[in-house]
């Protein structure tokens, strides 16, 4: 997810802002930017003389973020960059225009002040004193968003998520495309909450109001514990199906997975369901394969035996990635980053070596109801009586989903891949008999009628080019 289209966006809107090139610095470096998720922090309300403070604040926020699960476990997937954007004055605006009951014209929560800052960070935005936003109303905010996009396009166009750090000790924050946070005590936790919205599509677990209710990772209208989307977590670590509470609106129709999650209160941590959602999104954005050798950039011919094949993976902490190697569809190695092939392992003609990589972390319970992320590397080895003629490689990512599960009559299966047209699914009985075999078409929902099968537990095996990609449990009601 690289936002290079903002270069075009800024050119179209050049009448609002000119090019501004500022100093950038990397404060967390896990690898090449093209193979990492890039978080970019912009300074707001910091004068040039306060840039050292900005870096200290940004490092503090970064350290706090990657001490929290699941960012702690997936720290290697992220780089963090900062952009030194200078403001003429420190702080943020306090126009004294909130509608909060505790604030009246005679009893302001903060003195009315105005600060000349680059993105015009403002408290009291949209009538809420603690909503710290760029500008106070939509018309001005639209202009400022152009300015933010311009700064990013001119200084770090390939960012994955940007946030704005405001040089203020007074509590305040906002979400949206560009989360904004103050730098006081709860600031680092506030950023995690807002990133939960902006980058990972999590919903508030306090009632956010009717405009912000929809089916999501951690919000649903489904109240049945056996059908809810996080059913695999129910009963574990206090995960359940909890009704939202409020005095008005339709909150009684909506349910959340936990009662102690940072998406409800910033003094908490992410609940297991939100943790799982973040990890799944990380896998959506960044496959775990950093590199592999040999690759097509370094073509191999007339190679000497043994042939060595290596994976360079982006490992969680602790490493929960598992690899399964097959040679000509037969199991060859398990959980190895480097394998060696002797000449006697090959046949004359075309040989196929495939490594399938999955994340087997206990922080995921997605076997029955969500998407399985699978990454593969395949080497095609041409072998003749004269030796190795060529080795070509390809890297593929798959997502495989199956729903509903449990199933009554018809199960829907779907896989998505960047360069594979078809996948074969086999439904296997618990005693190992193959019940059904179907070919699935890429990016198409494929429906299979199971009404003739007796109730029970089955396994579904997904294959590409005779290589097993994933196994999922299927329950027939």
UniProtKB/TrEMBL annotation:
Alphabetical UniProt keywords: Signal
MF terms in GO: metallopeptidase activity
Domain Secretion system C-terminal sorting: 402-475
Matches recorded under Pfam families: Peptidase_M64, Por_Secre_tail
Origin superkingdom: Bacteria
Signal peptide: 1-19
Protein name: Putative secreted protein (Por secretion system target)
Species per Swiss-Prot/TrEMBL record: Algibacter lectus
């Amino acid at each position: 997810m690289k936002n290079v289209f903002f270069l075009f966006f800024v050119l179209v809107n050049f009448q609002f802002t000119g090019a501004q090139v500022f100093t950038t610095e990397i404060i967390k470096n896990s690898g090449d930017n093209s193979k990492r998720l890039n978080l970019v922090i912009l300074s707001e309300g910091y004068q040039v003389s306060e840039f050292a403070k900005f870096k200290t604040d940004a490092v503090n926020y970064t350290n706090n973020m990657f001490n929290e699960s699941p960012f702690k476990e997936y720290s290697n997937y992220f780089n963090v960059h900062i952009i030194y954007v200078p403001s003429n004055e420190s702080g943020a605006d306090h126009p004294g225009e909130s509608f909060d009951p505790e604030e009246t014209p005679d009893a302001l929560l903060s003195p009315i002040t105005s600060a000349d800052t680059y993105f015009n960070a403002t408290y009291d935005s949209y009538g809420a004193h603690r909503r710290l936003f760029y500008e106070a109303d939509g018309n001005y905010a639209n202009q400022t968003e152009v300015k933010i996009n311009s700064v990013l396009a001119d200084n770090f166009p390939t960012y994955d998520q940007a946030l704005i750090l405001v040089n203020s000790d007074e509590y305040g924050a906002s979400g949206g495309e560009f989360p904004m946070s103050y730098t006081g005590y709860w600031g680092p936790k506030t950023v995690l909450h807002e990133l939960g919205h902006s980058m990972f599509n999590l919903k508030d677990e306090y009632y956010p109001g009717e405009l912000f209710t929809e089916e999501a990772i951690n919000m649903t209208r489904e109240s049945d514990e056996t059908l809810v989307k996080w059913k695999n977590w129910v009963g574990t670590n206090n995960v359940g199906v909890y009704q939202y509470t409020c005095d008005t609106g339709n909150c009684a129709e909506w349910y959340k997975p936990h009662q102690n999650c940072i998406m409800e209160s910033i003094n908490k941590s992410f609940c297991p369901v939100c943790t799982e959602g973040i990890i799944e999104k990380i896998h959506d954005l960044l496959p775990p394969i950093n590199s592999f050798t040999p690759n097509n950039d370094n073509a191999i011919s007339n190679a000497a035996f043994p042939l060595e094949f290596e994976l360079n993976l982006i490992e969680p902490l602790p490493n929960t990635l598992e690899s399964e190697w097959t040679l000509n569809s037969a199991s060859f190695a398990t959980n190895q980053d480097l394998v060696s092939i002797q000449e006697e392992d090959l046949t004359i003609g075309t040989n196929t070596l495939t490594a399938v990589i999955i994340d087997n972390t206990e922080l995921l319970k997605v076997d029955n109801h969500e998407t399985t992320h699978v990454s593969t590397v395949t080497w095609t080895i041409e072998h003749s009586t004269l030796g190795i003629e060529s080795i070509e490689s390809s890297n593929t990512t798959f997502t495989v989903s199956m729903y509903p599960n449990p199933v009554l009559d018809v199960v829907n299966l779907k896989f998505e891949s960047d360069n594979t047209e078809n996948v074969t699914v086999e439904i296997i009985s618990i005693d190992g008999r193959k019940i059904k075999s179907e070919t699935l078409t890429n990016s198409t929902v494929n429906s299979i009628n199971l009404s003739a099968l007796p109730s029970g537990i089955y396994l579904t095996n997904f294959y590409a080019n005779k290589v097993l990609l994933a196994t999922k449990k299927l329950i027939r009601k």
